[in-house]
Design a protein that fits this description.
By secondary structure, this protein is of the alpha/beta class. Helices cover 36% and strands 18% of the residues.
């Protein structure tokens, strides 16, 4: 069973979207487990877990002593897992990362709040700083839920149709093609004839062509990676 450990001062923010649909079903089927560690239960002095930053500045910083106590609550094996801290200055996570994380026994995530955490937490525990985009959130809880959802859907048996994963955007540096369903005509807009033809070869070619066109137009950075990959292969 895949497990994710989440350190947070707001455990009541969970499970959020992780507690509905196939994610909830997968948890009930013991395919994955969410372990929440409430940092507020590990105060270091005067019932506080944070303090003002050295050098001045606004906000409060999570104490390394608090995290030290909280981290010690994990099993010896869990302490060896990949450790992620969500930060705007981190490397932006991608689909390849999600595959690597979901293939491991588990992962540990630290959700910062206010002005963040003491840098020595990141350094001593070898935290990997990760960003989910070029924007700033109030804390790491929402980011954690995004990554957890992305990983859980990759676990064996979670999705009924595993082929949908193979056709995901970013799997081969291409964005997904357009999707259509009934009716064949909607407000004067029609479904491409190829998709209605029943010719599986032509349908596959059409989907790949649309993926290429969409990627070139909307994500030239991904298109460049796709072309580079094709040249190398």
């Amino acid at each position: 069973m895949w497990q994710v450990n989440v350190f947070t001062i707001f455990p009541n923010a969970f499970p959020g979207s992780l507690g509905v649909s196939v994610l909830k079903k997968a948890a009930c089927q013991k395919k994955w487990n969410l372990k929440l560690i409430d940092l507020k239960k590990f105060p270091v002095k005067s019932d506080r877990i944070d303090a003002a930053p050295y050098g001045g500045g606004g906000g409060m910083i999570l104490s390394p002593r608090t995290f030290e106590q909280a981290f010690a609550a994990l099993s010896e094996n869990e302490r060896k897992w990949r450790k992620i801290y969500f930060s705007p200055r981190g490397r932006q996570i991608n689909q390849s990362d999600l595959h690597e994380i979901s293939d491991a026994p588990g992962v540990t995530m630290l959700c910062g709040r206010y002005e963040g955490v003491d840098q020595r937490i990141i350094d001593f525990y070898e935290m990997e700083e990760i960003s989910v985009g070029d924007f700033v959130l109030l804390g790491g809880e929402t980011a954690a839920m995004m990554i957890i959802e992305g990983c859980v859907r990759l676990l064996p048996g979670v999705l009924g149709n595993y082929n949908s994963i193979e056709e995901d955007s970013f799997q081969s540096h291409l964005l997904e093609y357009d999707q259509y369903t009934r009716p064949p005509v909607f407000n004067g807009l029609t479904v491409p004839k190829t998709l209605l033809s029943g010719n599986h070869r032509k349908i596959s070619e059409f989907k790949l062509c649309r993926s290429k066109e969409i990627t070139m137009k909307k994500r030239p950075d991904l298109w460049a990676k796709y072309v580079e990959r094709k040249i190398k292969s």
